[in-house]
């Protein structure tokens, strides 16, 4: 059973960081770029090497991934399935604004994301299916090219979901999982009976 190493890098601060931006394509701030840069530099200094960089196509991930792939002379792939959760009518709104207008719905969504979702937004199970489909594609691509270690530049929701699965916690715990801006989270990916399995590991 082949164990693949995934290092998941969350994008840094963006121009709309104070909102639920979901699929909105906002840019990194200078601070956001530096957050990612300093995290990556720590791993490069520790002689960590990747075989490939795979990124969400949204520019808060893509722009940094393109620059880093060029710098490290690594292959770069984009995967639209690993975009952030889509927040529907809440896209671009701050949680404060949502709380003022729909306090009960927001509280329910934070507490029971499996049962409540943003108006006209993605259900958690839809988001999970999409992300898993994306990582199935990534697993196949890594196998085909004999890549063992990938840097995945993605979003908070994706990292929280995979961490929740890796810890085998119920999906309603999703929003309590860690996913800081510009930080890296290390997971193993294996496949057993055509099912993907994630587990946490120390980032090396």
Structure description:
By secondary structure, this protein is of the alpha/beta class. It has a single domain (3-200), classed as Rossmann fold, CATH 3.40.50.1240. The protein has 6 helices and 6 strands. The chain has helices at 30-45, 59-72, 95-101, 103-111, 124-145, 156-166, and strands at residues 4-10, 52-55, 76-78, 149-154, 184-192, 195-200. A 6-stranded mixed beta sheet has the order 3-2-4-1-5-6, sandwiched between helices. Strand 5 (184-192) and strand 6 form a beta hairpin. Helix 3 (95-101) packs across helix 4 (103-111). It is globular, with a radius of gyration of 17 Å. The two termini are 20 Å apart. The model has no long low-confidence stretch (mean pLDDT 95).
Q: Features of this protein?
A:
204 residues, alpha/beta, six-stranded mixed β-sheet, 6 strands, 39% helix, Fructose 2,6-bisphosphatase, PGM_Phosphatase, His_PPase_superfam, His_Pase_superF_clade-1, phosphatase activity
């Amino acid at each position: 059973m082949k164990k693949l190493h995934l290092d998941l890098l969350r994008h840094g601060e963006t121009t709309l960081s104070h909102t639920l931006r979901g699929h909105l394509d906002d840019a990194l701030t200078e601070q956001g770029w530096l957050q990612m840069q300093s995290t990556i530099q720590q791993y490069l200094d520790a002689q960590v090497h990747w075989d490939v960089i795979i990124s969400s196509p949204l520019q808060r991930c893509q722009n940094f991934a393109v620059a880093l792939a060029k710098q490290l002379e690594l292959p770069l792939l984009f995967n639209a399935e690993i975009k952030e959760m889509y927040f529907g009518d809440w896209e671009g709104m701050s949680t404060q604004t949502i709380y003022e207008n729909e306090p009960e719905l927001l509280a329910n969504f934070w507490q029971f994301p499996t049962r409540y979702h943003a108006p006209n937004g993605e259900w958690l199970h839809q988001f999970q299916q999409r992300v898993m489909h994306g990582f199935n594609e990534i697993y196949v691509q890594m196998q085909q090219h004999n890549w063992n270690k990938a840097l995945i530049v993605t979003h908070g929701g994706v990292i929280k979901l995979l961490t929740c699965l890796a810890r085998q916690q119920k999906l309603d715990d999703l929003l309590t999982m860690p996913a800081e801006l510009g930080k890296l989270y290390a997971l193993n990916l294996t496949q057993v009976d055509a099912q993907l399995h994630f587990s946490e590991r120390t980032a090396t």
